[in-house]
């Protein structure tokens, strides 16, 4: 689907698209919308595995608070299609260059070509291997209190100690409920942290967790290895966030020496000229509104560069004609 953007008289030998956007989440569709409205030839490639698929609703997005993530995606796809953007439901499994042309390979062997590429492939959450966590993820096993805290306000809540950040998460979750238990899971808060937790009324449970107790399709409690069950309505957990950046493998992609994260500038430009990366693939903390803004900013930067390139080519062509005709 989609239509050809641009103006008459353009080079028929140019790449198939001005821009290929890999990923149709909030960041990718936002970029595609801006680029489509700029009359660019845009393709979006998406594998259909969004990070927020388990969540019934998203929150904190002005004018879209409470909207199901799938509905936002459907609306976004319809909007970009209205501007001639072509959407491919496929997995992109490689990016190569041929001079100043990028080739995005799709699973199965087909390939698309473009002048620029924007990667917005997001990330995946690695969850602790406890029975019930994966099954309840995005429902009553939660990650972001800004996204879901209000919906479980004043309820008995838990925080699983998956790493050093669990203390901070427990102190934050306390903002939404006076009844919070930190299940340490081997985590040993230092004296200052224990003082903070005690001062805020957050209980630390040292006994390891065995499983989450679920009944009638709802979380009922947290069972410990000694057989006790601590009643809880929801549990927060900080997963290990793994960027889906396999497309960007190789020494040419500069990464942070400490974290291994892809390095980009404020507009999403990577170390490879002509390739941008935005959203959760580079910023794990980017919620939907932040990802939307990042996608729009990258799209404008991409289009500005394409405009400069188009002008330079037009000037060169005009000079060639002038030299040939003697005008």
From TrEMBL:
It holds the Pfam family Pyr_redox_2. GO terms for molecular function: thioredoxin-disulfide reductase (NADPH) activity. Keywords: Flavoprotein, Membrane, Oxidoreductase, Transmembrane, Transmembrane helix. It comes from the Bacteria. The keyword Transmembrane helix applies. SUPFAM superfamilies: FAD/NAD(P)-binding domain (SSF51905). Coiled coil: none annotated. The keyword Oxidoreductase applies. The chain crosses the membrane at residues 16-35. It catalyses: [thioredoxin]-dithiol + NADP(+) = [thioredoxin]-disulfide + NADPH + H(+). The lineage of its organism: Bacteria, Bacillati, Actinomycetota, Actinomycetes, Kitasatosporales. Residues 17-295 form the FAD/NAD(P)-binding domain. Gene3D superfamilies: FAD/NAD(P)-binding domain. InterPro entries: FAD/NAD-bd_sf, FAD/NAD-binding_dom, Ferredoxin-NADP_redctase_2. It comes from Streptomyces qinzhouensis. This is NAD(P)/FAD-dependent oxidoreductase.
